[in-house]
Design brief:
Layout (H helix, E strand, L loop, with lengths): L14 H6 L3 E8 L4 H13 L2 E7 L8 H7 L2 H4 L1 E5 L2 H10 L2 E6 L6 E2 L10 E6 L8 H6 L2 E4 L11 H22 L10
Parallel strand pairs: 1-2, 1-6, 2-3, 4-6, 4-7, 5-7
Helix pairs in contact: 2-3, 2-7
């Protein structure tokens, strides 16, 4: 099994090193996420996968915020973020910056996450919605693609912070596989 590693053995980046290091070509968009704990968890997960940024939209709280910090554990200082009063404005901005807009939502034409293979030449924006109402229909309509996380239980919904973790892990894993097969540097070694 092995012994647990000490924090000093984890080769963690400083905030300055993080900000200067290459990023996963992903922006997480939080569409009216009301729970500050979910927002903090999205920052912490974004830090773990070294994403480009988080866009906080609508009623989503912004740092500095003690409740966000409780679950972000300082990741709100490492991961870049922007606030948009309206999620449509965030999507418009991302489209102008040539991001593919992917909404994580159960829709009539969604594809399953395990069927989605990223393109190594595309930058992605993943939109996650409100805990009760999901992603706004206007954002679904403005998306390039909708992805659904496969589920087999009775609820057919996941907490938004869990969804962020599942989607970013699957994207990270698949992009690394694609990069390895094309002999490009993997995101595992982003330094």
């Amino acid at each position: 099994m092995g012994r647990k590693l000490q924090n000093s053995e984890l080769n963690r980046l400083s905030i300055e090193e993080f900000k200067l290091s290459p990023k996963l070509p992903v922006i997480v968009v939080l569409d009216n996420v009301r729970s500050q704990h979910n927002i903090g968890a999205a920052f912490r997960t974004g830090d773990a996968f070294r994403i480009e940024s988080i866009f906080l939209c609508g009623i989503s709280s912004i740092p500095p915020n003690a409740e966000i910090h409780k679950s972000a554990l300082g990741a709100e200082d490492s991961v870049e973020w922007k606030y948009f009063a309206n999620t449509v404005d965030a999507v418009t901005f991302l489209r102008q910056e040539r991001y593919e807009i992917i909404t994580i939502e159960q829709t009539e034409n969604s594809i399953m996450l395990n069927s989605f293979l990223p393109n190594k030449n595309i930058k992605y924006a993943f939109v996650f919605g409100n805990e009760v109402h999901g992603v706004l229909q206007s954002i679904v309509d403005a998306s390039d693609l909708c992805i659904e996380i496969p589920q087999a239980g009775t609820k057919h919904s996941l907490n938004v912070s869990v969804s962020v973790g599942v989607v970013l892990w699957e994207f990270y894993k698949n992009l690394n596989s694609i990069l390895k097969s094309s002999n490009k540097p993997s995101t595992n070694n982003l330094k």
